[in-house]
Amino acid sequence: MDDHRLTDAPPAAAFDLEPPAPAPYPAPFADVALPTWRLVLLLAWPALLQQWLVISVPLFDSYLAGTGHQVAPQAVQTTANYLSWFVASYTILVTTGSTALVARFVGAGDRAAAVRATNQAVLLALLLGLVGSAAGLLGLPLLLELLQVRGEAAALTVAYMRPLFLLLFFPVVTTGGVASLIGAGDTRTGLFIYGGVALLNIPLTWLFFRGAGPLPGLGFVGISWGTALSHVVGSLVVVALLLRGRAGLRLRPALLLPDWHLLYRLLRVSVPAAVDSLSVAAAQLWFLRIVNGLSEPEVAAHGIALRWEAISYQSGAAFGVAAMALVGQNLGAGRPDRAARSGWTAFLLGGGLMTFFGAVFYAAAPAMFRLFCPDPSQQPTVEAGVQVLRLVAFLMPPLASTMVFTAALRGAGDTAFPVLFTWLGFLAIRIPLAYLLTGERFGLGLYGAWLAMSADLVVRGAFFLLRFAGGRWKTIRV
Question: Is the pTM value of this prediction over 0.70?
Fold first, then answer.
């Protein structure tokens, strides 16, 4: 049926810049007469493919780093990935408010307000991208010292992260534009954008890593240059699509001037969510500091295990995207019961898929690690990693609860109270247990650190489930 299309016209290729054919705006999902599970899948599958394509970038980068048969670059990538997560948490300052407000406006039938919110989201992304870039370039050496990354490892990490921070402005703008489109019910454009970025990343990173013709290879640092430049292209495409109009949203120069009231409304939703995400990221960096005190093979194993585990994590995030959009639009349309049903359905479907991946992790862990550690000298990394990847296989239900219900609550604008869950999980459970289990008394190494992480996920997953079940989010104004 035509009235529930996600975009004005599906792109013919990853970077198709042709304007969409004339068509009515996509109907708000609150008005679409489909079963809830079908609506969730309709929104989730493009986001799911997008998330898998996104994680293919660090997986391919890890594969390239592993071809040198050295543990040090893989250990550096572990730190780099944590820093990238911190940056992703920073972009929540744009994305949560953008999706929540655009979804509310679309659900209420106020398309003009949705357009204004999109323009202000892109303006906010421009500013935050510049600030983040400057902060990253200036503050990285001090941060690495705090993370116990010193000497040659610190120098290599700075060189690796420099291109990513230098061009940070571009991926932040991408996230702002895509988040607004998600609020309008368009999850396909993000799929094509990030799919194009992932596909472009492969030849670019290979080119800068290996070199070709007169272009010399940059080695390990070339990987980050290829990744950064692929995100530049993705950002330019997002801006071009929004300038031409997408899913009823359009960038207009006159609307890019600051609208302080609307910026306040965006930040009123986004700031608590960003505090939550940045708290997670800061605590993750603290957790990384503990892991960095272990052996180099364990640090490398930690990073590789996280990259594999991200397949399930990002699957939960995809169903969280569906929950966020559907909860926001249904609340905007005055249908809180349908909003609640959307959240529960997204949790059940996303949790089921994540549990399947947990079974795969448990069965295939040795082969998954040998792919990145082909040399016999890397066997200590394989042994440490298989243990923790099999451990996390049992944590898919609480992880699904954390991922999906966090997003659902953000779609409702309930972003302040859940911060307490994050602080409790990390500061009262994960960090103290990690110190205890990796210390001299127990000496469990990386496995002890992941046991601490497991306890944190179980507690936070239960808290987020209870918060959503309580239903107080149904009455929050944004």
Answer: no
